[in-house]
Description:
The protein is of the alpha/beta class. The protein has 38 helices and 19 strands.
Amino acid sequence: MFSVVHTTVAALLVSHDGERWLPAVISGLQSQSAPVDRVVAVDTGSKDGSADLLESAFGEVLRTPGSTSFPAAVGLGLEQLAASGADCEWVWILHDDANPEPDALAALLAAAEEHPDADVLGPKLREWPSLKRLLELGITISGTGRRETGLERGEYDQGQHDEVRTVLAVNTAGMLVRRRVLEELGGFDDQLPIFGNDVDFGWRAAAAGHRTLVVPQAVVFHAEAAHRGIRRTPLTGRHTHYQERRAALYTLLANSSARQLPFQLLRLGVGTILRMVGFLLVRSVGEALDELAALVSLYSRPREILAARRARQRRQVVTPADVRPLLAPPWLPYRHGLDFLGDLLSAATNQAQDVAERRRAAKAEAQPQAAARRPARQSEEDMLTEDTGLVARFLTNPVALVISVFVVLALVGARSAFDSLAGGGLSPVPQGGTGDWWRLYAESWHPLGQGTDVPTPPYVLPFAVLASLLGSPSAVVTAIFVLVVPLGLWGAWRFLRVTGRLASPAGAPRWLLLWGATTYALVPVVSGAWGDGRFATVIVAALLPWLAHAALGFADPEADRRWRAAWRTALLLALGTAFAPGLWFFALLLGLIVTAAATVVVRGAVRDRSAWGPPAAALGAVPLLLSPWWIPALLHGAGEALLLEAGRLPVATVETLDLLAGRMGDLGAPSWLGLVLAVLAVLAMIPRATRIPVLVCWIVAAVAAVTAAAIGAVTLDLSATSTHAGLGFLVVVLQGAFVVAASLGAQSLVDPGATGVPMWRRGVAAALIAVAALVPVLGLGWFVVGGHDRLDETAGEGIPAYMVQSSMTGDAHGILVIRGDVDHGLTYSVRRGDGVTLGEDEIIDLSAEDTGFTRSVRVLASRPTPQVVDALADAGIEYVVLPAPADGDVASALDATGGLVQASAENRSTRAWQVDRPLDAAAVDGPRSWLRIALLVLQGVAIVVIAVLCVPTSERRRR
């Protein structure tokens, strides 16, 4: 019990649709041990019986419309209190969902008597209906706008915080405030209609020299109905988070010191972006959009913030430094960020453990007979292995040892990739660093050659992202060529483990998974794509098993999982299409065939949108994700890019035999090694048990063959060269189909549980196993031996170093390089900057010929005149170079041309001249394309949205 000197108190109770809580709140108010002199009840347009309950309990109720905000309701209550003539010293504010204990008011008044300098007092808030969980013991706000209570999540009340202390603010649910102070401060801010008015009021009170105390001996149980979305009001609407976040931002901007305001504006803008990313990571798209809407709402109305700041400055008594100790420590937001990352990591770990447990349970359920057939000696060894440490388990696992040796040898075979790579289909990386790729991708006009508006290849975006993470463009290329075999091995193992269950519930033996995964992982190597620098084929080979694994999710029985599989497939398919555009056309054809087959087999599937919708969405999302490339390419006459592959032109030629043997060019392993795999895939059709899944693999192979026949018949005549369409990705697809088919057939052929198997069949199986084992062994040995790549070719062009340095000072300092001789024909190219780099090579090859500049070069090489030299200067050409061996007739003509000054060359056989004319600084400048800018924004939004949709649905969304 608390003994206090009698003082006058008026209770102000505000309600809105609180019929479910009001009986207990009214009872708690009426049972207070300290007398309440007057009760003022304000009902804001309740549609239930709240107003009637208040009227029957207190006699008179002030009824207002539902649009009345909480500050307005409190103001109306104070006006009614003044009109009644009641001279009350204190005002006790209560919500209709805040039930005070009988001694709550007495404890608050006792603390007020003990601390006469306190003007605002608040109780300890505990959760209603749990009654034990703490909600608040005073509140403050961090620099990022987070409401801070100083409590752990779900912390129970054990008396650990029961000391009276000064705080920045207390909740309006149970706030006891001097009536004089409440009126002097103008009540609560009307700009905070329902949330955040308590923190703002406490901050204004502290700035005005008033003290706020939290009194833990006073307990109020609070349901937080509005915050938790238990009830909707016209003020909260459907976006509670928006109102809360807007209130937090408004409070910070309105009360921060003038010195901190610019920093606060920048911090809240950046912080909002980071919070949006965090919400998107947990698939809370609505909250992410609320964050952005709250920021835009305030930043678009600066007058409201300025008016609020002026009003606060008029009542300010103390300095901001006096209020700063009541605010949250500056390091607290960073701790919350680390906690959030920890929660994400923990959630991902728990989810992975749950998936693993489900798979182990399913495997244990599917293998009772196999476990019974396992010899007792093996069971004893398993028990012994489980009791040993991790190292012992590794050393006693032959599959793990073989995989480790395989990966190490693959890294040895890729030793040439640890150096700077250039050669074959791979151009040098930009010398200017990661920023060159970001600039190239953002440009709509490129200062290459004579300038071009051909769009940047889409793979430059993932390259730029990886370079930003790894530190340099060269690290990206090295990582791709070094890790392609391990990534392919990992992805193929996962995919074959799933497809193995199609043959039998027990799945494929581990040694068979090992053979299939290692054989597929070597495809980009033994095909010759690795040695020829065909990074598009290399990357597709690493992505394909992951893409196929994601596409298997279309057969999941749960619709939500099918849709998530669609978005994962869309991202992976778009990434693969960025390097090999034909992959999308192949996927489209395969999807149409599979859909048609499913329609025949399951007629009701056409009417189920969750059946055909996911694959259609996956295919339809790819053009959207790649729209900054596809649409401008078609508009600017570069549609040939849709049939090419990333890298230098011309692409590697793939004949019919090469397609079956999985070979590209002349740098691959012997063709018979790939033909063995094709023969094994044919033999896989023999076992009846796995004939259906093997037939599916052959359908995929047939679609690949049809696509190759259609695309391979096309010859593209570009301004720079003539080339066939890119078929490297189909080589990978075909070899992957052969590997899966052979693995499934072998799984049935060597099933240890099969009974009555003739001896000849076992002998044939042993022979086939021996032959099949040679494929990865010989392929890996061939790769490790080395000496079969062009990745160490230099990119030298015979241009003097000082000219190269001059060209890097600006786009207008170009170098015209003329090669060949008059008898056999001359060709020319223009070097700008650091030369043609990865990503720029395709832009130049797809650009249309500048006929006017070609005529100028033709005249320059035959009958040069000063007017032609002027044209070179206008085109931004500073030097003219004839690399060794220079044609004597052309060199003599250039020597005699006015306006060309002979320049030194490192090689005597190389001739060079400098253009003695003022260069046009805007020679290769071009217009900005607003269409591309809009498409880039659209692409960014699409990537974020689809990435979020890939994430599993949160528990809150499930409920």
